[in-house]
Amino acid sequence: MDTAVLRWRKRLGSAAAWVAVTMAVAFVLPSSPASAEPGVGEPVYVAHKMEGYSGSAMVGIFAATPPDIGNLGTPDYWSYCVEHDVSLGTFRTAMVEAPPLFLGSNYFTGATIQAKVLWVLAHSYPYLSLSDFGTAAGVPGISANDAIEAAQYAIWRYTDLNFDASWNWETPDSEAAYWYLVNGANASSGLLPADLQSTAAIVAPGGTHVAGTLVGPFTVSTNQPTASVSVTGGYTLTDAGGTAIDPSAVTDGQDIYIDLTGVIAAGSATVTVSAAGSSISGNIISVPETAGGTATTDSHAQTLVIVAPSTFRTTDSASVSWVSGTPPPAFCPAAGDPAQVFSLVNGVDIYGYTPGAASDALLPLLPATVSGNLNALMLDPLRNRLLMIQRSSGTESTLWAYDPANGGWYVAFGPFVSPDFPRGGFNADGTGYLLGGGSSPEVWEVESSSTFGYTVTLIGVM
Hints:
Layout: H1 3-6, H2 15-23, E1 43-51, E2 58-62, E3 77-81, E4 92-97, H3 111-122, H4 130-137, H5 144-161, H6 172-187, H7 193-196, E5 200-203, E6 214-222, E7 228-231, E8 236-238, E9 255-259, E10 267-276, E11 284-286, E12 304-307, E13 313-322, E14 341-345, E15 349-353, E16 361-362, E17 373-380, E18 385-391, E19 396-403, E20 408-417, E21 423-426, E22 432-435, E23 442-448, E24 454-461
Antiparallel strand pairs: 1-2, 1-4, 2-3, 3-12, 4-11, 5-6, 6-9, 7-10, 8-9, 10-13, 11-12, 14-15, 15-16, 17-18, 18-19, 19-20, 21-22, 22-23, 23-24
């Protein structure tokens, strides 16, 4: 056993200064930084040692320079040292880099060692919760300081020693956790930064959107098994058919919609996707030797490896706006006599007659121009939807439907070869019937086939 190694600790200027610093910081794991995560080639702010024993403490990292250096609060990220014999640089801006761009000269220059260090990082605290790490390491109830010491010593075992060694442990828990990490990393081929990093992105739909419809699709992408989504304004998020989704279990590539049915006014909303983890863990921080300088191979402060806490979630947001829509009439009253009787004029114009009124009134439905003869205005009471038949050619008909959730008038079925249909109607169960002309008219059945679609089938003659 190398007794020199037992006493090998990180240098620290003043123990009194260390006590003053650590007592001033409340260690609370944040859920995410206030702004978007910094990427490779972008700056972060390196604070100082903020948690752990004096010789192995983690350095707090902020996504942006804090507004009050004297009152830092909880950092966005944490970091471990990967250069034992280089002095730590604190209270300065530094650059996020990928591990292959390491500026130092110790064993961390090799890809194999980098992979081992990242394995340690991914299996230690705070990448894992303190409870989960303690359970995995066989030391339930381990303290944060001991967990940090175990991880830092395990990292130095690879970056600066390159052989298994014992250390001057603070407690048996720290020793047990260290050997758990070292034995695991030795048995593994290691990890890449991508293995530690989470992605979550959302893309908003283009074009013009109208109140009263389903607005979308918003497309989610993530490398996690599931992500969660939320929307401002309290709207319901649905699939393309208008069925509400589980916002806590969205998957990669899923399309989601904002349900604006029943909404009339113009407005806007923002949809946010969130996934467990961070897009920055496993990268390194190249720290300049002097504040305001640039880190180089010949001149740099101690290089750090960054890690987000287990509570961190990476997020992305996309916004959409819509213009005001016109509310459709209530085609189907809940009970009693019909509130209105509807009639159809080629064009398409829909008129409603309210019993007792002097005349029919043109209804403010979404405008649609449909050529040809229009007949068989029908009401689907199960879906509160108007339907009509267009004689689209001399031998074909097309079924149209009106639903604000699908943009107003749309082709619900066809064109299909059929006789002309002068009349039609729906029963209370939501099944429609179209009747041809003549003394023995053909009877065609209209059935719902999807959220907005129908099928029309010949079933016999009357």
